[in-house]
Amino acid sequence: MKKRKIPLRKSVVSGEMKPKKELIRITRSKEGEVAIDPTGKMPGRGAYVAIEPEEVQMAWDKKILDRVLETTLSDEFYQELLDYVTHQKARRELFKNE
């Protein structure tokens, strides 16, 4: 059986190449709306961040996503992203054996 290629993406915070499933995509549409993209298929410019609360906190402190997506993000968006990543990490740890 042929081994499938695992798609890799680069985290904008750490600069590490990781499998796409270990990252979360944040998109900016042409209208300037920024959203969390859990499917990875929304149109617009995308930036990837690892599913690690520490990495999201670093992005928030240094405003890395603001620079990468060329927009100004609110603290509410960063808080929503932090909550989402914390929830996803907890789910992965809970269901990692399945």
Record the SSE blueprint.
Blueprint: E1 8-10, E2 17-19, E3 23-28, E4 34-37, E5 45-50, H1 53-62, H2 64-68, H3 75-94
Antiparallel strand pairs: 1-2, 3-4, 3-5
Task: Tell me briefly what this model is.
Helix content is about 35%, strand content about 20%.
| Low-confidence blocks of residues | none
User: What would you call the structural class?
Assistant: alpha+beta
Largest sheet: 3 strands, antiparallel
Provide the residue-averaged pLDDT.
93
Rg over C-alpha atoms, rounded to the nearest angstrom = 14 Å
Describe the protein.
The chain is an alpha+beta fold. Helix content is 36%, strand content 22%. The strands form two sheets. It has a three-stranded antiparallel sheet, with helices on one face. The chain has a two-stranded antiparallel ribbon with strand order 1-2. Helix 1 (53-62) runs antiparallel to helix 3. The protein is globular. It starts with 7 loop residues before the first strand and ends with a helix.
Kindly list the characteristics that best describe this protein.
single chain, 98 residues, alpha+beta, 3-stranded antiparallel sheet, two-stranded antiparallel sheet, 3 helices
